[in-house]
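Notes to self after the Tuesday call (sharing in case useful).
The group wants a holo model before anyone commits to mutagenesis around the pocket. I volunteered. Ligand is pyridoxal-5'-phosphate. Logging inputs and output together so the record is complete.
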Amino acid sequence: MEKKNIDWSNLGFGYMKTDLRYVANYKNGAWDEGGLTADDQVTISESAGVLQYAQTVFEGMKAYETMDGRTVVFRPDLNASRMIDSAKRLEMPPFPAERFIEAIRQVVKGNEAYVPPYGSGASLYIRPYMFGSDAVIGVKPSNEYQFRIFVTPVGPYFKGGAKPIVIRISDYDRAAPRGTGHIKAGLNYAMSLHAIVEAHAEGFAENMYLDSATRTKVEETGGANFLFVTKDGTLVTPKSDTILPSITRRSLMYVAEHYLGMKCETREIYKEELDDFAEAGLCGTAAVISPVGKIVDHGREICLPSGMNEMGPVTKKLYDTLTGIQMGRIEAPEGWIYEIR
Ligand code: PLP
Ligand code: COI
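Result:
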């Protein structure tokens, strides 16, 4: 397979139009058979549910070229089921899981020339999404929907790759109790835009959101879950009903316990505890694991002992093991790697 002539090692996290995308339409109570198209444009009613009332959900996962030249996708079954949960919460017709995975296979295969070469540090980001496409004007669910998947080659989400980032504790809330924080809905990201623009303007890479009910507990960032390492080497991740159930975080907890023999806890984490951790990081498909060097709470600096120069040693072990599994250097748990070719 001849790869595209792209400067793979210098890619950032951005959109690049590739050759083919997948489209299926839902009408009269059923999904059509769907298929690949070269057309990257979407035409919908000016009063479409997505445009008026933000009726849209999405997913994110990655394809990799492995050490032995295969093209693989990491745990797409979990993205399929999370997208079903997201769709149900916004009164959208779920796209069946088997069809989701088959569509992923078609899009990745159709754009194989864009799968970054092994060792380049880049990967192929896969973005499934669906939206209400027909006209609504009273507040109600659409009758018609479109499900699409595009792919785009990407590099690191944060400039500087594995360099520790500085984040701030946000005064804005991300998700309400019993709201939509646990699903991947566009509305959660729209409402975070003001907070991220403000954070960037103040020199921070991301926001740490607290639970909106008490503002005492750590939740997540705008696009990743948190992980913390205690001074005695336990991996701790926040437990909350209002954060996205990150597939990367769930995978890392498994890797920590079963590959690295670490103690792991998922529990409520209070802001006051932040001073006590040895290492901190963000984890997600886009972020992979991005180390956090400093957390700023209204001028008060919480400096992680792992420092601002490199990933902490435990974070590094987690990172190496997870990416080793994703790229075929380390044997994966049963069912984690979906082979395209
Ligand atoms: N939290 C939020 C808000 C996200 O947008 C993401 C990205 O998908 C994650 C967490 C990480 O989830 P995952 O590991 O499944 O990509
Ligand atoms: C992902 O990691 O897939 C996400 O959706 C995060 C997004 C902020 C890019």
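Two things stood out.
Residues 60, 223, 284-286 surround 2-OXO-4-methylpentanoic acid (ligand 2) (CB under 6 Å).
The CA atoms of residues 78 and 247 lie 7 Å apart.
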